[in-house]
């Protein structure tokens, strides 16, 4: 999956909790959920390995009848499977909260039991590995994960009713019984019955579309005839409009909700070109029957690479008015690259997820270079490098097994950092050998599972060189080279001296790197590159040159993800800034100038902002002027507001908005009056929030009621209200939300509720706001419900405690419960002393409940441990029968 910004950690946290003031467009659009926190190097987390394959799933047929009103499904799953190694009488399927109605099989069943997360089927006779078997399971479900409904009853638009599924990491078990691990590959069929007028999209090819004569319903039958991973099984159904194209013989379709179809080409437009590029670059033809993309409301991530049927967030859609601010080439190319990396070959277990996500991110990056030019690609690498090297305590390796849950692996390590390592690998191999290695790796392991060593073995086979050190230092160990570099010139000896020190803190997961490092020396007569081998903590290198260089560039090809501390002299820095053929050199020069406050440095930054040939350098120059933050840099920014590229223009407006002065206010007002790009206008509206002026109040109320795509101008006006922190806005905002809440996207509504609470938090009478927020506790949109809980915490009215306390009894790991437990201490702390006695009993009861849950978990763990010991030491009698659980056991007919 892929990004619109590079703030992976911020986007991760925003996905988990509401962050006041954050903008929906700041979210990272990625193919999966990012881990908020990563286990440290010495983590006590258990080591995770691939799930044992006692059985191999071969084929599953799903017959699904969704009820959109009730948000339920009635389904039948028919699974064909076989034992892998030895006979077995017991088949354990992953199944969470499924109401199993019947179980039938090709073999006689002794009984079955349904637990909280398993369907366990016991056969009369052992099943043998030399034969295939079938079980047919009838069930009903009202899933809270795995399958997601979007209906008018939930607050979504009339005419846009739909549902979608999400399998990664292990959510498929919430909507059908399965062997739910990435090392299970199978073929699949889905039949889905829906009301007339709806569309069903799934994996593979559409076998048929018929009408059920009895009900008048439509029946869609899809078949995925090549094996793929269980988590890639997809079902999307609802009202959609469709765009079509072809890439060679591969059909391309793009589905959007009717209310959003006008924006469809903003995402679909580059699909054909991306597929053409990837097939040529990877060297392996697109491996599936077709390629569909579907945009859905409030998707759980940015996108998901289901085999031949990608699901995308509708936040990818945008209008032409945003100019260059939005470009979903990255998202589309990332998800499509997954059709090879992740779908054609799939990581055996989540510790090797970089083989999916790292390669998808890498090919997304090089498509950027193909489409938008080398400088654009290098700038994206520069942004990612700053993000990764700025992470605190970044010591985890990319390939690791000490994680608590699968989702903990979905962080920046396996996305941008892994993509960087692939870039380094390509530089080491050379283009031709890299291409041959990747092609061979895919063809050798197609429709199968892979681990990191599979890739290494192919590379070593084709290159004839050992790559264990490369994989060891870059994948099996953490961090990156931190290099402190100093340079001097000996005119008499004509020697350039480089002193290089590796400064990274060493530990169990961080070692000294051994890398060939290129250094470029450039002067008027040309440039010369030398390679030195950096392997020690500290080394001096002497290089003979015909003349002193005007520019010294360390790693000019930008091969390594590293943190290099090197401060060239002023003349060298000026020459580096002037080199229009070296975009990374100019970006690094901007960094150096941003640490200075002299007139010359500010002047050079202003020149770069207005004259540099590349938009990324201009953007970084605006950021640098903002960071210096004095009167001279404000004047430089005010003189630079005329920018043809919307990305630079937005950065300048944002930089001016960070100043507090009459000049900055006047410039921001002019932007509000004259800017036509709604997103830049939104930035300006937020900037006005720092000022307590009658004109600001008037402008804010005006844009609160301004119609815009996804209500983004109203959201910006509300953010401005929050910044002004004036309770005078409580009444108009409350009235607006009462009338126009359905006009907001879920994220925007959540932000608005929290702002309302924030503005009213110091009011003597909070009753009206509290009661309004309480109504949203019952919102059918889970994200809005959670935002309401958080908003009540922001409001700080203890009268809301009783309502929030009800969510403490929700499922232990649910976001509602987490939000309630986070908010309750704030609400209780705001009570008057007399309230403390009134609520003491409730708090004691809550503690007792938590204690009972903990004791139950410990007892359960003890029993499981004892049971395992008994199983390993006792041999059951031949006529032993499995115990029936409370739900009973049903015999096969």
The proportion of residues forming helix, as a percent range, comes to 25-40%
- The radius of gyration over CA amounts to 30 Å
Proportion of beta-strand residues: 15-25%
Count every helix, treating DSSP H or I runs of 4 or more residues as helices.
Answer: 27
In spatial order, strands of the major sheet run 4-7-2-1-10-13-12
Determine the N-to-C terminus distance.
46 Å
* Oligomeric state as shown: single chain
Helices and strands: which structural class? alpha+beta
Q: What is the mean predicted local confidence, pLDDT?
A: 91
Low-confidence stretches: 1-28, 32-42, 871-893
- Biggest sheet, open or closed, and with what strands and sense? 7 strands, mixed
Shape descriptor reads: globular
Beta strands, count: 28
Structure report:
By secondary structure, the protein is α+β, with helices and mostly antiparallel strands. Helices cover 39% and strands 21% of the residues. The protein has a seven-stranded mixed β-sheet, with no helix packed on it. Helix 11 (570-578) packs across helix 12 (583-594), helix 22 (746-760) packs parallel to helix 24 and helix 23 (767-775) packs antiparallel against helix 24 (782-795). The two termini are 46 Å apart.
Short description:
By secondary structure, the chain is an alpha+beta fold. The chain has 27 helices and 28 strands.
Which features would summarize this protein structure in a list?
disordered N terminus, globular, about 900 residues, disordered C terminus, 7-stranded mixed sheet, 27 helices, alpha+beta, 5-stranded mixed sheet
């Amino acid at each position: 999956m892929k990004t619109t910004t590079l703030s992976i950690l911020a986007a991760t946290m925003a996905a988990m909790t509401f962050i006041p003031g954050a903008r929906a467009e700041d979210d990272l659009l990625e193919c999966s959920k990012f881990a908020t926190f990563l286990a440290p190097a010495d983590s006590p987390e258990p080591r995770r390995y691939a799930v044992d394959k006692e059985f191999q799933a071969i084929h599953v047929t799903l017959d699904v009848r969704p009820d959109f009103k009730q948000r339920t499904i009635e389904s039948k799953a028919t699974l064909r499977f076989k034992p892998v190694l030895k006979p077995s009488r017991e088949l354990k399927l992953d199944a969470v909260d499924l109401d199993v109605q019947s179980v039938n099989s090709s073999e006689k069943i002794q009984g079955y039991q349904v637990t909280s997360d398993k369907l366990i089927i016991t056969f009369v006779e052992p099943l043998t590995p030399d034969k295939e078997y079938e079980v047919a399971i009838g069930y009903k479900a009202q899933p809270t994960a795995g399958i997601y409904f979007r209906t008018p009853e939930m607050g979504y638009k009339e005419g846009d009713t739909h549902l979608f599924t999400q399998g990664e990491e292990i959510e498929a078990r919430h909507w059908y019984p399965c062997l739910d691990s990435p090392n299970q590959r199978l073929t699949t069929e889905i039949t889905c019955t829906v009301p007339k007028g709806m569309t069903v999209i799934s994996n593979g090819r559409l076998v048929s579309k018929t009408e059920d004569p009895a009900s008048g319903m439509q029946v869609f039958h899809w078949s995925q005839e090549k094996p793929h991973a269980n988590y890639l099984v997809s079902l999307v159904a609802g009202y959609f409009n469709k765009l079509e194209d072809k890439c060679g013989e591969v059909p391309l379709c793009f589905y959007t909700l009717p209310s959003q179809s006008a924006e469809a080409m903003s995402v679909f437009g580059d699909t054909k070109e991306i597929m053409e590029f990837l097939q040529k670059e990877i060297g392996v033809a697109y491996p599936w029957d077709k390629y569909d993309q579907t945009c859905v409301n409030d998707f759980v991530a940015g996108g998901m690479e289901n085999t031949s049927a990608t699901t995308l967030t509708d936040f990818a859609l945008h209008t032409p008015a945003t100019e260059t601010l939005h470009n979903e080439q990255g998202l589309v190319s990332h998800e499509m690259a997954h059709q090879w990396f992740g779908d054609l070959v799939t990581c055996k277990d989540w510790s090797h997820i970089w083989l999916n996500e790292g390669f998808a991110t890498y090919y997304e990056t090089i498509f950027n270079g193909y489409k938008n030019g080398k400088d654009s690609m290098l700038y994206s690498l520069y942004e990612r490098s700053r993000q990764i090297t700025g992470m605190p305590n970044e010591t985890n390796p990319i390939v690791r097994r000490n994680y608590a849950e699968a989702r903990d692996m979905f962080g920046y390590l396996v996305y941008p950092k892994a993509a960087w390592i692939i870039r380094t690998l390509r530089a080491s191999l050379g283009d031709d050998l890299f291409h041959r290695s990747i092609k061979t790796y895919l063809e050798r392991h197609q429709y199968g599972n892979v681990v990191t060593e599979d890739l290494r073995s192919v590379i070593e086979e084709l290159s004839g060189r050992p790559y264990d050190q490369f994989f060891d230092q870059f994948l099996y160990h953490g961090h990156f080279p931190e290099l402190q570099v100093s340079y001097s010139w000996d005119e008499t000896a004509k020697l350039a001296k480089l002193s290089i020190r590796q400064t990274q803190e060493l530990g169990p997961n961080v070692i000294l790197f051994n890398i060939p490092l290129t250094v470029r020396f450039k002067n008027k007569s040309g440039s010369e590159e030398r390679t030195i081998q950096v392997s020690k903590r500290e080394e001096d290198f002497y290089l003979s040159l015909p003349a002193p260089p005007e520019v010294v560039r360390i790693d000019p090809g930008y091969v390594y993800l590293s943190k290099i501390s090197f401060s060239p002299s002023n003349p060298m820095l000026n020459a580096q800034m002037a080199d229009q053929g070296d975009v990374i050199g100019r970006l690094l020069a901007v960094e150096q100038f941003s640490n200075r406050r002299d007139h010359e440095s500010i002047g050079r930054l202003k020149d770069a902002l207005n004259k540099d040939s590349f938009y990324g350098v201009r953007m970084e120059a605006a950021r640098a002027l903002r960071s210096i933050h004095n009167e001279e840099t404000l004047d430089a920014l005010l003189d630079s507001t005329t920018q043809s590229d919307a990305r630079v223009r937005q950065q300048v407006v944002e930089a001016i908005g960070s100043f507090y002065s009459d000049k900055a206010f006047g410039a921001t007002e002019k932007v509000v009056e004259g800017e036509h790009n709604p997103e830049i206008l939104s930035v300006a509206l937020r900037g006005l929030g720092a000022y307590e002026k009658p004109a600001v109040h008037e402008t804010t109320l005006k844009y609160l009621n301004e119609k815009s795509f996804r209500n983004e101008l109203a959201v910006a006006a509300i953010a401005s209200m929050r910044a002004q922190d004036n309770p005078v806005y409580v009444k108009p905002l409350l009235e607006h939300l009462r009338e126009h809440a359905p006009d907001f996207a879920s994220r925007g509504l959540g932000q608005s509720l929290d702002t309302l609470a924030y503005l009213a938090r110091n009011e003597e009478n909070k009753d009206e706001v509290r009661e309004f927020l309480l109504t949203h506790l019952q919102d059918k949109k889970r994200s809005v419900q959670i935002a309401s809980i958080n908003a009540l915490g922001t409001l700080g009215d203890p009268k809301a405690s009783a309502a929030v306390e009800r969510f403490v009894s929700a499922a232990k790991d649910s976001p509602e419960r987490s939000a309630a437990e986070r908010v309750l201490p704030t609400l209780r702390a705001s009570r008057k002393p007399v309230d403390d006695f009134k609520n003491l009993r409730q708090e004691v009861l809550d503690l007792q409940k938590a204690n009972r849950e903990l004791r139950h978990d410990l007892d359960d763990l003890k029993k499981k441990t004892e049971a395992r010991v008994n199983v390993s030491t006792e041999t059951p009698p031949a006529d032993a029968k499995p115990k029936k659980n409370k739900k009973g056991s049903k015999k096969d007919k």
